[in-house]
Amino acid sequence: MVSDMRNVIAAELLKLRKKRSTLVIPFILVGLSASILWGLSLASQRNWIGVPSAFYLASATMGWVVNIVGLFAIIITSFHISREFALGTVKSAWVRPIRRHVWYTAKVISAWMMICALFLLTMIVLISLAASVFQFTDLMEKEFLVHSAGSLWSMLTVTVLLVLLALCAVSTAIAGIAVFFNHPGGAIGAGLSFGVLLIVLGVFPLTQPFLLTTYITRPVEQMIAMSKGLPLPLEWSTLVWQTIVGSIAWITVTYGIGVWWIRKKEITF
Amino acid sequence: MSKSTEPILAIEGLRKEFRRIMALKKIDVCLEKPGVYAFLGPNGAGKTTTFKCVCALLKPSGGRVLIDGIDVRSDTKKAMTRVGVQFDEPAFYPYLSGSENLHVFAKWIDPGCVGRISGMLELVGLGRAGKKRVAEYSWGMKQRLGLASSLLSDPKLILMDEPTSGLDPAGIADVRSLLPKLAYEEGRTILLSSHRMDEVEQICDRVIIIHQGGIVADGTLAELSSEARIIEIHCTRPVNIIEALRRRTDVSRIKQTGAQKIQLSAPGVSSSDINRYLVGENCDIDQVIEKQETLEDVFFRLTGSAGADGE
Q1: Which residue of A has its CA nearest to B112?
Q2: What strands, in cross-sheet order, belong to the sheet with B83-86?
Q3: Tens-of-pLDDT digits for all 311 residues of chain B?
Q4: Distance (Å) of CA A254 to CA A105, A172, B269
Q5: Among B87, B93, B215, B282, which residue carries the largest CB count within 10 Å?
Q6: CB-defined contacts A:B, below 8 A
Q7: CA-based nearest distance B242→chain A, Å
């Protein structure tokens, strides 16, 4: 099973290398992120918002970037799964000696790889650009040390890792939706509707802790607060624990739905 | 090809229902030895549904499919190692070249198959075009690539849905010469669906005809055509003759096949009986001859001209 999955992932990477979107999407994302960072740097240099710190600039830009990458995650995963049905290539895959759930798992993992690579690439560019505007130094309030540069780096790394996990959960959930559709358009529409529903449910304090959107935005909000020296909404340990458990629960449930349907799905076209 | 005592394909009591529409009623097919077998039927008869059940793209509502003795539903992966499929609509990644598409498929089967790719492309006449993007391929080139893809895993059983549709005359000739080679020299079993009766007559050993979800005939061409003969009447005024023939209850499928030619089916009635009858009816006839049915005649006799539902 592992070697089958490795083979399917290798095939996905071969396809990815040949797609034009492999170059275009990172280019768009990095360009958008750099523009946001430039706007925020101007605002913080004039003391309109935030603090003149590279940590703040990277964190605040990340707040925007996670939403954009989340949107890309919906589009990329929907295309990644549903396009196989739209092109009819899924028939070619399923008549090979490969189990459907192995094929699906490999597709989900390769979608994770794409989305994580996209987010990490953007973060590397953001951190480099932020370093060119401000210094990654200790956060001081007059003469008092609020957060050392070391602790800020650690928490920025934790935030990036938590967001990566939450993005993988988003991708898995969208894959679980996309298997029900034979065209990417339908899958993207359903994925976006699902995202809007989660945002609406996020208004209610009772449902908020269980929502995927919470796991993406909360670590970044915590990091922004930390980089500005504000009181933290949650203990880091609580936030890490809640995000990991919540994201893994979403991955497990939505992956289970995807596997169940992919095994049941009939190719009538 | 490895030797096995099991039939390469055994379809036993296969049924498939789509939301109360019975697409396949009860299909029984057994292909025991290598050869080229034709699976014929009008549009919507259930050919593609049968193919999809055989290669596990559809789950049967009843019955079972055994490939080389392996139940497709209980061990799909093992069964599929023996099968190559060419679909009616070839599907590939348009942004990849023909060769890269085959690389992707090879990785799904076994990375060891990668070594066969260039040979397969040469075999189907895409040696040079293998490096072009599939988006630039014509339909015929895609059909050829589909054939190469179906052969990639060195299968014992090859299912082909309309393998020559969209091919130019040279392509059709290539496929017609390739299939017997695959069957008799390499020991593969090929089950193909086609609407081209001439093609089937030329290359197939056995013909299976499906109509409205059920098998209506299964046998060699000689067996099927010897079951019934047709009577052909050459005359100057076919209208009067058709009217006279319609008054007989033992005559069926009367059709005008030319300006001065009529064909009919009359089991148990000789051409001299028909001759005498028409002379008695004052019809002006030139000649009455008995003919062996062609595959097309057999096909229309068994399936009628009306389409079927359900696929």
Answers
A1: A7
A2: B70-71, B62-67, B9-18, B21-31, B214-220, B206-211, B35-40, B189-193, B157-161, B83-86
A3: 545 578 899 999 999 998 888 889 989 999 988 999 999 988 888 899 999 999 989 999 999 999 999 999 888 889 998 999 998 888 999 999 999 999 999 988 887 888 899 999 998 888 889 899 999 998 888 989 999 999 998 899 999 998 888 788 888 888 888 888 889 988 999 999 988 888 888 889 899 999 988 998 888 887 877 666 788 899 888 888 888 888 888 888 788 888 888 988 877 788 888 888 888 888 888 888 888 777 877 888 778 753 333 33
A4: 12, 6, 69
A5: B87
A6: 83
A7: 44
Q: What crossing angle do the helices spanning A21-45 and A2-18 adopt, rounded to 10°?
A: 80
Domains observed in chain B:
9-224 (3.40.50.300), 228-303 (3.30.70.100)
Name the residue among B80, B100, B103 with its Cβ closest to that of A95.
B80
Question: Is residue A87 within 8 angstroms of chain B, CB to CB?
Answer: yes
Q: What is the ipTM of this complex?
A: 0.84
> Is the minimum CB–CB distance between B52 and chain A shorter than 8 Å?
yes
| Nearest chain B alpha carbon to A87 | B91
Domain-located, residue A269 = no
Q: Are A14 and B58 an interchain contact pair (Cβ–Cβ within 8 Å)?
A: no
B155 vs chain A: nearest CA distance in angstroms? 11
Q: Is A29 a member of any domain?
A: yes
Query: Please, are residues A8 and A111 in contact by the beta-carbon 8 Å criterion?
Result: no
Question: B85 CB near a chain A CB, below 8 Å?
Answer: yes
Q: Which helix (H) or strand (E) holds A213?
A: helix A212-228
Residue A216 lies in a domain: yes
Residue found under tokens 């949107």: A71
- The boundaries of the domain holding residue A239 are 2-264
Cβ-nearest to A89 among B80, B91, B109: B91
Cβ of residue A6 closer than 8 Å to a chain B Cβ: no
Look at residues B163, B132, B122, B131 and name the one whose alpha carbon lies nearest to residue B146. Answer: B163
Q: Does residue A248 belong to any structural domain of this protein? A: yes
What is the distance in angstroms between the Cα of B283 and the nearest Cα belonging to chain A? Answer: 53
> Residue length, chain A?
269
Q: Mind listing the pLDDT tens digit for each residue in B117-130?
A: 999 999 888 888 98
**Residue A11, Cα to own-chain centre: how many angstroms?**
23
pLDDT in tens, A159-174: 999 999 999 999 999 9
Which A residues in the span 139-198 are in contact with B, Cβ-Cβ below 8 Å?
Answer: none
Helix (H) or strand (E) segment spanning residue B218: strand B214-220
Nearest beta carbon to residue A91 from set B57, B93, B109: B57
